[in-house]
Write a sequence for this structure.
């Protein structure tokens, strides 16, 4: 199953959608409505295509493509109804995005699933995927695809929620205050989890406390008698706890703290996995999680706590975590053939902030390189940090030293602060952009090297990974092999 989880029964009927959206039908859909899409390029047979207007494209331009590819119905606004009706059955609404929100709300209203919502400064998507695995062992589970965590991603995921799902997992993100509040009130979770609070998106907040308050908005959507799951080891635990209590939630914690409700007892960190002994609400559990890093283990404690609070079988949930592998760009490992042997690439290119950068460098430091190899960090700008950006980048030099990184390559104007803070022996190279950095990096790589690539989306570090895979022959994707075992 994919993250959006397709089930056998029809997802919607045309009259149900018309009622939910206060729209009117023009034409009769041919066959059952089995999915919801906003992308004409990937629309499937039986999908409902919502022609929303995005930042770049207006979906109304692609109604013909969507219906031609097999969509059963297109949702369009009044202004485009006459033109769109020539392509096939349509549902005419006042505003398409508002109609998708209304559809999501209707899906939540009819659902009997136990709903878990996740937010946090770091680790939302990986935690959502771990929850999906853990809960799927106990019943049909529907979860957000990719990082669909914003004003269109959350209602889209809700609109795809099947009637028969036993569990639903929703990722909720934000860049500014008051973004989580309307989304969590759509989702109405039974369990709301905050992975952590860190100095991310500082450009939009006065301080980290403001970020904590924005994350705490997730508790406002909890159903009556709902549960708040909070990181006990985070510096903002008490602030989050107080906000959850104010919303009427029961508060539960996870971490290494002695009083955590989901507490780490023992840990064996390995290069591609971790073995964990923990106590979850008084019940001892031993499990393996199929991804490396102490930060992954930390979130796994929250996952198992949330799963148990949602009513899932704890033993099955814990067993499922052995199959967990990092999503693309969040720790996937690729072995590449080079002259004289191979090198290992750890792809952390999806995004970056000071907290995730510390975790990624610690993980690189824990990865053993052969005697002739080096630990190499390739880092792009961490964006949206406001006035503190240069200082926070320079501070990464301390983390690189503690992790025993041999060479650091830097891309972007903010990363120049880190490059200047590094000792000369650790400076691999700097360039204004990731594209300009590529040749400097590729020419320096050799057999035995372990290379970790990380940066914010806007720093375009993903193509650096692609360039290495193009220059050198891929031998395997370590996490895919590991997950299969």
């Amino acid at each position: 199953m994919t993250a959006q989880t397709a089930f056998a029964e029809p997802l919607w009927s045309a009259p149900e959608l018309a009622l939910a959206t206060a729209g009117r039908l023009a034409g009769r859909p041919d066959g059952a409505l089995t999915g919801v899409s906003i992308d004409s390029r990937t629309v499937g047979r039986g999908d409902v295509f919502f022609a929303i207007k995005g930042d770049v494209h207006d979906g109304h331009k692609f109604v013909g493509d969507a219906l031609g590819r097999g969509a059963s119905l297109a949702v369009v606004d009044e202004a485009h109804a006459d033109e769109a009706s020539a392509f096939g059955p349509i549902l005419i609404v006042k505003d398409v995005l508002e109609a998708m929100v209304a559809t999501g709300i209707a899906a939540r209203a009819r659902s009997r699933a136990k709903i878990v919502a996740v937010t946090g400064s770091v680790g939302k998507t990986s935690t959502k995927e771990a929850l999906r695995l853990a809960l799927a062992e106990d019943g049909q589970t529907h979860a957000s695809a990719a990082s669909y965590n914003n004003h269109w991603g959350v209602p889209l995921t809700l609109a795809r929620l099947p009637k028969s799902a036993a569990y639903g997992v929703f990722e909720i993100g934000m860049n500014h205050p008051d973004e989580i509040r309307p989304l969590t009130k759509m989702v109405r979770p039974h369990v709301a989890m905050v992975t952590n609070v860190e100095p991310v998106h500082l450009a939009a907040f006065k301080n980290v406390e403001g970020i904590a308050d924005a994350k705490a908005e997730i508790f406002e959507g909890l159903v009556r008698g709902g549960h708040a799951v909070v990181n006990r080891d985070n510096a903002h635990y008490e602030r989050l706890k107080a906000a959850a209590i104010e919303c009427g939630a029961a508060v539960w914690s996870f971490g290494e703290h002695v009083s955590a409700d989901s507490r780490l007892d023992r840990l064996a960190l390995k290069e591609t996995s971790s073995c964990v002994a923990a106590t979850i609400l008084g019940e001892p559990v031993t499990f393996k999680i199929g991804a490396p890093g102490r930060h992954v283990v930390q979130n796994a404690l929250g996952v198992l706590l949330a799963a148990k609070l949602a009513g899932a079988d704890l033993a099955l949930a814990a067993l499922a975590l052995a199959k967990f592998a990092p999503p693309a760009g969040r720790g996937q490992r690729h072995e590449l053939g080079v002259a004289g042997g191979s090198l290992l690439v750890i792809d952390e290119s999806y995004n970056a902030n000071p907290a995730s950068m510390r975790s990624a460098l610690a993980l690189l430091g824990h990865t053993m390189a052969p005697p002739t190899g080096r630990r190499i960090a390739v880092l792009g700008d961490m964006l949206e940090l406001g006035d503190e950006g240069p200082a926070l980048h320079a501070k990464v030099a301390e983390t690189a030293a503690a992790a025993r990184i041999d060479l650091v390559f830097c891309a972007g104007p903010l990363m120049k602060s880190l490059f200047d803070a590094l000792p000369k022996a650790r400076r691999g190279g700097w360039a204004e952009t990731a594209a300009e950095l590529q040749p400097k990096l590729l020419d320096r790589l050799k057999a035995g090297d372990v290379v970790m690539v990380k940066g914010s989306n806007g720093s375009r570090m993903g193509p650096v990974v692609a360039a290495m895979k193009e220059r050198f022959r891929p031998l395997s994707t370590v996490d895919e092999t590991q997950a299969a075992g």
Confidence is low (pLDDT under 50) at residues 1-7, 479-485.
